Amino acid sequence: MTASRKEIKVGILGATGTVGQRFIELLSTHPYFKIHALGASSRSAGKRYAEVTKWKLATTIPKDVAEMVIQECKPDAPGFAECGVVFSGLDHDVAGEIEVAFRAAELVVFSNAKNYRRDPIVPLMVPLVNPHHLPVVRHQQSLLGLKKGYLVTNANCSTTGLVVPLAALEKAFGPIKTVLVTTLQAISGAGYPGVSSLDILDNVVPHIGGEEEKIEWETAKILGDVLPDSTGYEYHAHTPMTISATTTRVPVIDGHTASVSVQFVRSPAPSVEQVKQALRDFTCEAQTLGVPSAPAQAIVLHEAPDRPQPRLDRDLHNGACVSVGRVRECPVLDIKFICLVDNVRLGAATSSVMNAEIAVEKGYIA
Ligand SMILES: NC(=O)c1ccc[n+]([C@@H]2O[C@H](COP(=O)([O-])OP(=O)(O)OC[C@H]3O[C@@H](n4cnc5c(N)ncnc54)[C@H](OP(=O)(O)O)[C@@H]3O)[C@@H](O)[C@H]2O)c1
């Protein structure tokens, strides 16, 4: 089905940044999204992409993108009006006004910024977990008087790595009651230039501003339901889930690791073997729909006692899956495990691209 789709022109806001570069890498070989317009700050606007971008990926800048001229992030800047989708990797301090301006101009925006994640009419969508939240965009359009434009956000990068295994466990065993999670987050999660080398080398920084709260409330929205009339969300509808998060920054370049303990509502809790099987068996709608960026396996279960590791496992399935390992009994709650997500791919750009592919497949993008 994908092979026969006609080309859809796309724009990238924040194209020069950490997430923006992953968008370029993913979209430059995409089967039907075609990079058409690039936006960044006024410092970069008017200049060639290769001239102003501090490219940090191991691949080279795709040739046609290198020569593109960066525009200001304004919907009437050259190129954006023709785009069927606009991906945003903008900093949160500027994303707020820019993203709604693009939406008001009838553009479909997929954002990585935190600004509208709590908005009751904006889907907070992790493509491997809750594509069923997408219909709320019709309510968003009707409230705002829009025909084509809408806004969808993806989750915080560490939330994304957590909710995929939690969704798999809830699918197999019913609601989870309690989650304790401690993250070990990569430096690239703070963008470029990010944390200073003198702060992070030989060190662990035990605080990332606002991150713990994001994990705690975002998880409840993502694992919640859509109201029956698709006008909003019911946060973790079946039962209140208590989540306690501790977030730390560690000297890893890409890949957020988390140590997780969960307690199920059901008693007795599932065994370690049952949990492992449920993680192995997990399949999701992105895979059933067959969208191009869906990983063959949403969760890779590791049996080796020293895996997953960021350096060895973040590239699995092109960074589009979550790795889980060390599944074992928890003497305090029920089960504990380690999970790993590529924070810039599934944690950011890949999620936006997959969300847009799902929207195309379900007829939400003309
Ligand atoms: N890094 C991650 O792992 C990750 C994961 C999930 C979500 N996110 C979110 O994704 C967003 C981008 O993060 P990042 O890490 O890619 O940040 P980044 O590396 O700092 O890049 C920021 C981008 O925003 C542009 N920008 C800055 N000020 C602007 C302005 N006034 N007008 C227009 N564009 C402006 C920059 O353009 P110039 O080059 O011209 O300054 C650059 O392209 C953030 O909201 C972040 O929270 C990041």
Characterize the structure shown.
With 366 residues, this protein is α/β, with parallel strands linked by helices. It folds into two domains: 2-156 and 349-361, Rossmann fold (3-Layer(aba) Sandwich), CATH 3.40.50.720; 157-342, Dihydrodipicolinate Reductase, domain 2 (2-Layer Sandwich). The protein contains twelve helices and 14 strands. The protein has helices at 18-27, 49-52, 63-66, 92-104, 136-144, 157-173, 197-200, 211-222, 272-281, 285-289, 310-313, 345-361, and strands at residues 8-13, 33-40, 71-72, 85-88, 108-111, 150-153, 176-185, 225-226, 233-234, 242-249, 256-264, 299-301, 322-329, 335-341. The model has no long low-confidence stretch (mean pLDDT 96). Residues 14-20, 40-41, 43-44, 73, 89-92, 94-95, 112-113, 157, 188-189, 191-192, 343-344, 347-348 line the site of NADP nicotinamide-adenine-dinucleotide phosphate (NAP).
Task: Give a short summary of the structure.
With 366 residues, this protein is an alpha/beta fold.
Q: Could you report the average pLDDT, rounded to the nearest whole number?
A: 96
- How is the CATH topology of the largest domain named? Dihydrodipicolinate Reductase, domain 2
The distinct ligands, each listed once, are: NADP nicotinamide-adenine-dinucleotide phosphate
What class do helices, strands and sheet pairing give?
alpha/beta
Q: C-alpha Rg, in Å? A: 20 Å
- In CATH, what is the class of the largest domain? Alpha Beta
Active site: 157, 256
Protein name: Aspartate-semialdehyde dehydrogenase
Catalytic activity: L-aspartate 4-semialdehyde + phosphate + NADP(+) = 4-phospho-L-aspartate + NADPH + H(+)
Keywords: Amino-acid biosynthesis, Methionine biosynthesis, NADP, Oxidoreductase, Threonine biosynthesis
